[in-house]
Amino acid sequence: xxxxxxxxxxxxxxxxxxRAGLLILFLMPAILVVVITLVQENVMExxxxxxxxxxxLDLDQGDLGQILRRQxxxxxxxxxxxxxxxxxMADIREAVQDGDYQVGIVMPQDSSLRFKQEAAQLLQQxxxxxxxxxxxxxxxxxxxxxxxxxxxxxxxxxAQLQMALATMAMQAKLEALDRVQQEALxxxxxxxxxxxxxxxxxxxxxxxxxxSLQENQDFLPSAGTVPHNPVQQNVPAWALFxxxxxxxxxxxxxxxxxxxxxxxxxxxxxxxPLVLFGGKALAYIVVCLCQFLLxxxxxxxxxxxxxxxxxxxxxxxxxxxLTVLCSGLAATGYGIFLGLACNSYEQASTVGATTVVTAxxxxxxxxxxxxxxxxxQRLSIISPLNWGLSAFHDLILRGDALPxxxxxxxxxxxxxxxTTLLAWKLAGRRHSRF
Length: 434
Known about the structure:
Layout: H1 2-17, H2 19-42, E1 52-58, H3 63-73, E2 77-81, H4 89-97, E3 103-107, H5 111-127, E4 139-145, H6 151-187, H7 202-207, E5 211-215, H8 230-244, H9 247-260, H10 262-268, H11 273-302, H12 317-341, H13 345-363, H14 374-379, H15 384-396, H16 406-432
Parallel strand pairs: 1-2, 1-3, 4-5
Antiparallel strand pairs: 3-4
Helix pairs in contact: 1-11, 2-8, 2-11, 3-6, 5-6, 8-11, 8-15, 9-12, 9-13, 11-12, 12-13, 12-15, 12-16, 13-15, 15-16
């Protein structure tokens, strides 16, 4: 244990002297999180050009569900039906909560029959001059939203759904009015003209709803989560991005030790390479914790002064810190492997920067995974940054507890173990050459 502490102190001393490396580790992610978030606040939320995946469950199996599906298909929604698959509202809730779909829509049972009866009753009440709503109320169409869906896109989809329901309700009212007129015309004696429905109050008839949208949030925690916004997406994402950039200074320190002969002298001591790796890992895990704290403080205290929502972590703080720890281990493991696999600092910096930026791009750091093409969504699972970001999202946005992120944490720890094992093998080969 004393050897690991000594090795950790040595790494922190070397890091303190590397001012350029410190700038890369702290200044770069701090600038990126501010700039990218400001840009996305005004651009990403306002663009909904890509079709959003919507799962549609028609429990009614009548005309109403088919009409609504046709109305929604005209916009930027990709409707995927679950008819005839013995699904229920709980399945929709689970699929949307897990992020398999961005939106879930449920047409309740007997909606078509109730809808037609309500339209006829509403017209009869209006023609009789009755005020107030004496009907059973509008038919409620249930809608579920993925907690990770951006607020602007959520508002656009909600408006599209409300417009579709309003159009369907107006068509039903006009059809009911036409039926009343046709029935009145058929009952008149031959040659007599049809008088208008004198007591019909058209403005009141148009205003009264037949269909209404009900956002179902029963599957979300009642407290502790906040609506999705670019801050909640970008603060953990860019903190994670900065943490994985520690791979470059770790690799640089290892290459410098090898070139200066320090690594050879350390290897002749009764010290295992795993002890040296452990010292580096502990030192840079401290750096990763400081990085996350810095970005979180920027999100919590600086963002409100530039017109952005504040970053908050109101639930599962120990699980969040555990995710930071596992992500830091994965990042340091990759840096140790990179330092022994590359032959020069230039090579390590180029390979490290390229691989980290690529992993961030496909992992959802720069663009949410659900906004990517299907092929990129499948590819994102190979990115360690996607594992860490998915864990952060489950905790901060979905309100899940520790058991929900154990698979992501397990992948991060496995990545650390594999990269450290490969580095240990490479260290043995390099030592045998001397």
